[in-house]
């Protein structure tokens, strides 16, 4: 454990004017209060607050924050109280410690309205002093670094909460290094096999290509010296989770990913940033669509940098970030730069922003005190995502989260525009409403009188504002339809556990879920704001955990009319667990498509043919076909081994077609019969880890037009 003197020395490194006596007193008081308490590892409990304080010294934070770290668990876990802390260390520290305690006690990942309400109130309170978040993030970082001492089931809960809440929060507040470490520590717990697979691939790559980072760093320094630019150059391999996420987002294997190395160039002036960009682009070819200028358009947390991706002669891509030293300080510490010290005085960094601004921006649109769930969703969606900048036809800039669609764009302009949206043009070309918008695109929303929001828009929209407005409109216009669909979902969900969805059972579920009555519960169930599993769990938690027998094919899809048949679309081969929508065909019933299927654009002008559908939430039999596009090495026994591995994953191969044969590899399409989307991802992950598999991805034939048997 770090001693009081060593901790004070860490603070003195950046703040020689620190009040050493006050920090020493906090150290002594905290140690005394936690006397006799131990962590899961067997260490004295006070080692944890000291480690949290040490993490915060790396961000050069003020004395009050360091003292808060030392005392952050005293009010909650010891005989100390608010009054005692205020008496010894003043109101500022007492309020900070109390704020951290309240944040610790909140179940941030809960869906209950009460917790959403607490989250909202705390966010409002934190806008006055976000140092409580800095302490809480450091607290979570140390807990994740030492998580192996916890029980395995507790590790998974903590890791999931870290991945869902704390890592994105750190990123949104500008502390990218902390986000990456939190994500990787959580990834280590949630998917150790996936992480090891990435690391093994890295080791193999380094063996094959040598020290790429050292070579490229040297080349960049040489180019900058030639251009007369004074700058520092650093390179690194990206974290395993960062690479894993790219693989999932792009649906690509490791071998097909290119920008797995990142380089950072720190210049003297802003002008040098742009000169450096020119020098880099003169030597290496820029990759189209991968340039972002966050210097001229900074992020809301103050982040400024130029991002570009370039490729060399071998086709390998690397990402390059260019920024000044002051920009780099903000990029490393984020909103913490607001409180940072250097040489005994608060840092005067022109790029540090008021950390309360992004919270106040979030809360402006939610004036109705009853919208706690909407507020919580908006916080999760908009606080935890990167932004894209798009333009209206008049040239006005609209900021949206990454992954936003024209629906989000329409609602960002005005709720009335969103409600009346029937289509969109992006850069002058008509596109489907589920198209993901990119930086710099010009978006023109097409509206029509009489148009009303569609339930499928909830699957398309990603911003809290759009989803809230759509839900409100749907509740008013389609309440009866949602209640009808909700009854069917509830009936099916309760039958699955051998119970009936009686009025009394639904009233009980509504009360438990803090809803007004069973009609409100059914309306939310029908509009996909609740799942049947959540409703059943509210009444029969012990039964909801048991999936029971596999769901028969005739009951697999919920939302069909009595006696109505369904078929799976061969173009997208939707699997249980995917978001789906139905298209009616006269005489053929309903064809089920995945919500992101390209062929749905053909039916955009025929809303009457669209049917709201859901997969049953239970366990499905392994009868749903999906096609894998696999590239494997052409060696003896490889294909047999691959087929064996697929069989070990309980997936039956129904067809196999070679589409390309070369001397060193085969490319083939393999049809497998699966239970659901989760089994598909598990199968692809296992194949991706195989050394003889060069690439694996899900194959979707968007050309097919015939209807496949369900």
TrEMBL record:
Domain TGS: 382-447
Residue ranges of domain HD in the record: 45-144
InterPro entries xrefs: ACT-like_dom_sf, ACT_dom, Beta-grasp_dom_sf, HD/PDEase_dom, HD_domain, NT_sf, RelA/Spo_fam, RelA/SpoT_AH_RIS
Annotated Gene Ontology cellular component terms: plasma membrane
A single MF term (Gene Ontology): GTP diphosphokinase activity
PANTHER family reported in the protein's UniProt record: BIFUNCTIONAL (P)PPGPP SYNTHASE_HYDROLASE SPOT, GUANOSINE-3',5'-BIS DIPHOSPHATE 3'-PYROPHOSPHOHYDROLASE
Entry similarity comment: Belongs to the relA/spoT family.
Function comment: In eubacteria ppGpp (guanosine 3'-diphosphate 5'-diphosphate) is a mediator of the stringent response that coordinates a variety of cellular activities in response to changes in nutritional abundance.
Name of this chain's protein: GTP pyrophosphokinase rsh
Species this chain originates from: Ruegeria atlantica
Lineage summary: Bacteria, Pseudomonadati, Pseudomonadota, Alphaproteobacteria, Rhodobacterales
